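User: structure tokens for this one?
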Amino acid sequence: MTQYPSNDYSHYHAHIYFDATTLTQATALIEQAGESFPVKVGRVHQKLVGPHPNWSCQLAFEHTIYDTLIPWLEANRAQLTVLVHGLTDNEYKDHTEHLFWLGESKQLDLSVFNRNHS
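Assistant:
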């Protein structure tokens, strides 16, 4: 059984990454997640947004579904990459220290964050 990081935060984001060739697959995964779990589904961005190196869609969720949503995402993502991070008052740390990857890890553009924010 796959071990995931401990559920240490009250709220999380999962960013599903895709491109033009995987847009249909990603959209289906996002819709299924929205129908199956109490997540807030963000926009399906067909452009780069924030620190993300690929097109993406954000799922916002609470810690109460972490233990069911994360294994579900892992089992259903196929070759898609998913960035999962906790939400604190420090976006830089959320995207450097409070994160993990389902699938291939990617290089984020951290220049969008204020590193001195604490």
